[in-house]
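Hey, sorry to bother you again with one of my protein questions. I've been staring at a protein lately and its backbone has me curious. I owe you a coffee for this, so here goes:
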Amino acid sequence: MTQYFVYGRDRADSGDLKGELTEAHWAFMDRYAEALIARGPTLTEDREESTGSLHIVDLPDAEALRAFAYEEPYYVGGAFETVEFYRFHNHTARTMWEFSTPVADYNRYLVLTKDESRPVTSDHLIVYGDLLDGDTHVGRAALVEAPTPTAAAALINAPHAEVHPWQFGGRR
């Protein structure tokens, strides 16, 4: 099995379409429940609307990855502008559900950076790892809790990172 980072970035004004497809999306993800390491939507700065859909999932091979990415209902329905995926080397060795130290006043973020691999430790890391294209390191991804986007980037020592508000996903 191999872990993969899969991130679908929403098309502009896809909120209504995603709303129509949400149950189908959840049903699709139910089939992968045991393989999911993390999941959830990225959000606008005010956290009112979705901007994307993140999944870190353990799959047997690249063929299973393509099925996961391209048979997903948001993708099939046209809600995504792009879908990117990488192999993921999980340095936390846990799932988001095993994260046990949330801070009440902090928000959650997806932090993406194209810089070098480096060790990071913090009680505020939910899941953290390297992004790989084949065997080539192409960046890092972290799901973190922090008071601000700037603090989220600083947590993984990535001042030029792409930071997205994020929340735990799944059925509500």
